[in-house]
Amino acid sequence: MPPEPNLQSLRVAALLNTSSGSCDASAGAALGAILDEAGIKPTKVWDVVGKDVDQALDEATQAGVDVLIVLGGDGTIRSAAQRCDQDGPLLIPLPGGTMNMLPKALYGARSWRQALTDTLKSPIVQAVHGGQVASHRFFVAGVFGSASLLAEARESVREGDLGAALSQGVSALKQALGHELGYRFEGQPTSKAEAVVVLCPLPPPESDLEVLLDAAAIDIEGAGDAIRLAVMSAFRDWRADQTVTHARLESLDITSDDPIPAILDGERFMLGRRERVTRVREAFYALRPAPDIEGAAPHSEGT
């Protein structure tokens, strides 16, 4: 696939989950108008609600299309990305939910309309690396352990709701106390922490840079640590916090006396008591706007 594909010559399809947060009944017409303006006639558009998403995604990824546009929440986007691979289709994941983790990593703070318009105007191919735990893949961030609720505290801080951040941070801390994880970063001895965070950085387009998982173990000692970490993760480099042990690696092991709660790209899961997280190199390819297109810059590190 060339780095700047000619979309007018490719088979393009779209899937909309109209039950997600910011994707309503008018989204289909708006998306159609943007495609028409770009001179693209989609081969098919799936307009579905939550219970029909998985079947529609199966049909969409098996339909032999070259480009799949998906508008939906984090669960829809992650499910679509997990069905794509190095052989395609190329994915345009548009923000239609709450956290919108993968769309934010690719398109920054753009609305879904602007992200689609800019991408169709000057598309480039972006390799997206991922992580895998059990049968689940994630492409931006995995948060493991009871303190995974800190992810929600982070979003509240970013949105200016410090009261909610305080409440969520303390709630996460209470759940985390007495529920430590065992973790082992490759080449290091086993240690314990309240939570382990694994990020999947995005490499620069057309880069040969070897991209590893970016892992951090968080050892929280009190409510002050929880709230400070939530603030740092929203506005500064949280890896520099004194509660964080950081490493770049291909795999890590996580253990617990109880099933391990996790948030993978904004979606909640309950895992087993012993899990290995591994890197998935070039899990799929996405389309994003060329860097010279005006708009909110995407985050090069995925979260």
How does the SSE layout of this entry go?
Elements: E1 12-17, H1 27-37, E2 44-48, H2 53-61, E3 67-72, H3 74-83, E4 90-95, H4 101-107, H5 112-121, E5 123-133, E6 136-138, E7 141-144, H6 150-158, H7 162-176, E8 181-185, E9 191-193, E10 195-199, E11 213-218, H8 223-235, E12 244-249, E13 251-255, E14 260-264, E15 267-271, E16 274-289
Parallel strand pairs: 1-2, 1-3, 3-4
Antiparallel strand pairs: 5-6, 5-16, 7-10, 7-14, 8-9, 8-13, 10-11, 11-12, 13-16, 14-15
Describe this structure in words.
The protein has 303 residues and is of the alpha+beta class. It has 2 domains: 130 residues, Rossmann fold (3-Layer(aba) Sandwich), CATH 3.40.50; 124 residues, Tumour Suppressor Smad4. The strands form 3 sheets. The protein has a 6-stranded antiparallel β-sheet. Strand 14 and strand 15 form a beta hairpin. The longest helix has 15 residues. The protein is globular and about 55 Å long.
Summarize the structure.
The protein is of the alpha+beta class and 303 residues long.
The arrangement of helices and strands along the chain is EHEHEHEHHEEEHHEEEEHEEEEE
Please give the count of helices: 8
Give the CA-based shape: globular
Report the helical percentage: 25-40%
The largest sheet has its strands arranged as 6-5-16-13-8-9
Count of discrete domains: 2
Number of strands: 16
Biggest β-sheet, characterized? 6 strands, antiparallel
Q: CATH topology of the largest domain, anyone?
A: Rossmann fold
Rg calculated over all Cα atoms: 19 Å
- Fourth-level CATH superfamily of the largest domain: Probable inorganic polyphosphate/atp-NAD kinase, domain 1
Structural class: alpha+beta
CA(first)-CA(last) distance: 27 Å
CATH architecture grouping of the largest domain: 3-Layer(aba) Sandwich
Spans of at least 5 consecutive residues with low confidence: 226-236
CATH class of the largest domain: Alpha Beta
Integer average pLDDT: 81
User: How much strand content do the residues show?
Assistant: 25-35%
